[in-house]
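1st attempt posting a full record on here, be nice pls
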Amino acid sequence: MIKMLMEKYLSVFGGYKRKGIKCGVLTLLISLSSGAVTTSTASEFYNDKNIKEANRWEGYVHQKVGSKFRLISIRRGGFPNFGQGDVLSAHFYLPKDERLVLSARKLKSSGKKYYMEAMQKDWGKGWQSFSPWGVDHFIVTEGISNRNIGVSVKGDSSYYPPQILKSGDSVSSNNYAIHFYTPTSISGINYILSDKDGKEVLHGNVGSVSGKRVFKIKLPMSKSLEGEYLLSLDIKWKHDPGRHNSVVNFYHIPI
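the predicted structure (as tokens):
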């Protein structure tokens, strides 16, 4: 219901040509959900004034940081360097028609909390692209670097890692970068990547991680076949004798 209200008001104030108004500011009490993260806040969302038909919500949120271990970003390859005037795009593959949430946020929570979410929710089978995603209005203005932006494309039960490109780029990657947030200190993590049949593809470990931090796991998959994969993490807390298991389902297609 709230998102319906957002769409209604954004059609007037956020980028569509309505009564001569091309862009503006919208302040609403909203609830946004992406994975295990939920934000409930009075937020200001703007739409890029250069977009004739608004394609995203983008702005600052007063995010309530949760107390759960969670994934906050999963993408293919690196995040490109960018500067004033650059436009980004996200490219991902879907094995079937699906309803998705494509979102981006700051990896580190210091300062203003940037958040972007694509308006389009229903996507078709095959390669898909989200663009334009201009950097001038928020990302460059706030001095957010390419190393501090997390992005994810999440379906009902699986992630579809996007490749982020800058206008003019044509690079591709079969390596994945997955960022997690931990609310408490970790002594170590053992992880296993398996295919849909349960066969181990690779394994590794992560050393100690301080609490309330973001850390990254890299998965090289240049030799892996197309299909669903399961990343399983066995986490040992520093101040808790118990252990925690976390799993991530995602789809891989060689490019």
